[in-house]
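Hi R.,

As promised on Friday, here is the backbone we talked about, encoded as structure tokens. Could you run it through your design pipeline when you get a chance and send me back a sequence?
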């Protein structure tokens, strides 16, 4: 009985946070073909390898961003990820892939302190001045990403990738963690916390949009 008394409120909280995320993202998630035009694609980081190549999950996100650029849906791409250690550089790897696959270097901007989804959204708005963007990630994550960005002042739509669902174990792990990540997302928005690293305004996106 004690376990049930503890578990029930926790399930209610998780369910409420998940529902909030889906309701906030409703009507704002599209395919590449259908998504409205925006100035910037915000590509969220994930694991990259030390040899300078992205994991399949990141590569799938980057290919969506490339498609958005080629289709004229965006004019610049902001790649946001973890570069907290010198030898591990998510945004640098992401930029190299995009440039190597035809996106002009002047159109790709790196955010080196996107340590989680909330930080990436906050920094896109407060450091890079992004007020409208297409957020690019996997489909199990896209509702949370869109909701967080919209909650911090970015008029965000989202495009999600399903192609890497063939990696069933990794896909399942990502999907299973989303309800718990929803609770963290709600806590971040309610607290209004600053990103781990904020820093001064950067002109990279402004410059990319002027090209």
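Update: got your reply. Pasting your designed sequence below so it's all in one thread:
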């Amino acid at each position: 009985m004690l376990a049930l008394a503890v578990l029930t409120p926790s399930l209610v909280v998780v369910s409420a946070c998940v529902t909030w995320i889906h309701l906030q993202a409703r009507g704002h998630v599209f395919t590449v073909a259908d998504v409205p035009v925006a100035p910037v694609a915000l590509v969220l980081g994930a694991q990259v390898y030390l040899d300078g190549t992205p994991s399949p999950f990141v590569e799938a996100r980057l290919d969506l961003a490339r498609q958005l650029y080629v289709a004229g849906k965006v004019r610049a791409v902001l790649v946001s990820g973890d570069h907290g250690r010198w030898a591990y550089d998510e945004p640098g790897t992401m930029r190299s892939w995009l440039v190597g696959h035809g996106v002009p270097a002047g159109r790709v901007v790196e955010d080196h302190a996107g340590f989680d989804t909330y930080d990436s959204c906050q920094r896109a708005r407060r450091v890079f001045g992004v007020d409208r963007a297409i957020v690019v990630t996997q489909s199990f994550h896209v509702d949370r990403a869109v909701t967080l960005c919209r909650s911090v002042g970015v008029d965000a739509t989202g495009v999600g990738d399903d192609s890497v669902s063939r990696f069933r174990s990794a896909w399942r792990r990502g999907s299973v963690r989303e309800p718990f990540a929803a609770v963290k997302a709600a806590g971040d928005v309610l607290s209004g916390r600053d990103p781990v690293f904020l820093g001064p305004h950067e002109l990279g996106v402004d410059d990319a949009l002027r090209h």
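One thing I noticed while checking it: The mean pLDDT is 95.

Thanks again,
M.
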